[in-house]
Amino acid sequence: MADEEQMALLKQGVRVWNDWRRDNAQVIPSLVGVDLSHIDLSQADFQTADLSGSDFSGDNLSGANLHQANLSGANLTGAQLTGDDLIEAKLRGANLIGADLSGADLSAANLIGANLIGVDLSDANLTDAVFRSANLRYAKLQRANLTNADFTDAILNHADLTDAVLTGVLLTGADISSAKLKQASVGG
Questions:
Q1: Total domains in the fold of the chain
Q2: 133 partner at 20 to 30 Å CA-CA among 5, 65, 109, 159?
Q3: Which domain holds residue 117?
């Protein structure tokens, strides 16, 4: 359940929210299941926040700090997350259809069962990320660092992995039919 006081702060704008976060660093924000769709939340500090089940569809979250945030089951359809810190974020079962995460850092992120159809992850850091049973049809993964990523039982057909780093990637049971692997670096 969302904290009403925290929701009121966020509605005052990112600047007010970030000031509150800085002054209350020990508080873990709870914005569970709230509708935040079509809002400019760029540069917002959501580090460690519980945002599970919330709606961020169409939002601008570019440059946001989502380090260790819980976005499980969240709707991020068409959201802009370019260059975001999503290190160790929980995105289990999240809907990221058509989202732009180019240049984002999702190292050690949990994306089990996430819907990533048509997502842009080009130039992203996906080191140690877990994509088990995720749907990445038509995903753009050009030049992404996928070192030690786990794609067990994931759907990657028609995904573009051109120039991606695939060292240590786990693909057991993954569907990579029609995936573009041109010049992908598989290394030891």
A1: 1
A2: 65
A3: 1-188
